From TrEMBL:
Self-association state and partner proteins as the record states: Component of the nuclear pore complex (NPC)-associated TREX-2 complex (transcription and export complex 2). Component of the SAGA transcription coactivator-HAT complex. Within the SAGA complex, participates to a subcomplex of SAGA called the DUB module (deubiquitination module).
Chief location category: nucleus
Record GO biological process: chromatin organization; mRNA export from nucleus; protein transport; transcription elongation by RNA polymerase II
Subcellular location(s) of the protein: Nucleus, Nucleoplasm
Family: Belongs to the ENY2 family.
Molecular function in Gene Ontology: transcription coactivator activity
Function comment: Involved in mRNA export coupled transcription activation by association with both the TREX-2 and the SAGA complexes. The transcription regulatory histone acetylation (HAT) complex SAGA is a multiprotein complex that activates transcription by remodeling chromatin and mediating histone acetylation and deubiquitination. Within the SAGA complex, participates to a subcomplex that specifically deubiquitinates histones. The SAGA complex is recruited to specific gene promoters by activators, where it is required for transcription.
Alphabetized UniProt keyword annotations: Activator, Chromatin regulator, mRNA transport, Nucleus, Protein transport, Transcription, Transcription regulation, Translocation, Transport
Organism: Escallonia herrerae
Name of this chain's protein: Transcription and mRNA export factor ENY2
Region (Disordered): 1-22
InterPro entries noted in UniProt: TF_ENY2 (IPR018783), TF_EnY2_sf (IPR038212)
GO cellular component terms, semicolon-separated: DUBm complex; nuclear pore; nucleoplasm; SAGA complex; transcription export complex 2
């Protein structure tokens, strides 16, 4: 009945109520829920924070941020801009050993949780 209404140019159409009820969570969503419910996600986050600090990654990112702010001028940088510029550099510079350890911990969790 309402399907014949014109869609707004500025925003996407409102989803039907039936869409929300029929939505089945993806495997990634299920894993995320299990990690949160078990408390494992917080433990993994703490592990990553510790490892990144120990290897000097955190200090390296602080140096990059300070240099960017100095170059642009303190009053000319927004948080959104800083995140947009620094995030790709930060992700690319995470050591492979930390990524591998995190992946192994997630795999071990999935096996123990029988997912």
């Amino acid at each position: 009945m309402l399907k014949n209404r014109r869609q707004s140019v500025n925003r996407p159409p409102t989803p039907d109520l039936t869409d929300d009820r029929a939505k089945v969570p993806t495997l990634q969503e299920v894993i995320n829920i299990k990690l949160i419910e078990s408390g494992e996600k917080e433990q993994l986050m703490e592990l990553v924070r510790e490892k990144l600090t120990d290897c000097g990654w955190k200090d390296e990112m602080e140096t990059i941020v300070r240099a960017y702010i100095k170059k642009q001028g303190r009053n000319n940088v927004t948080l959104d801009e800083l995140v947009r510029v620094i995030t790709p550099k930060g992700r690319a510079s995470i050591p492979d050993s930390i990524k591998a350890e995190l992946l192994q911990r997630i795999r071990t969790f999935l096996v123990s949780a029988a997912l």
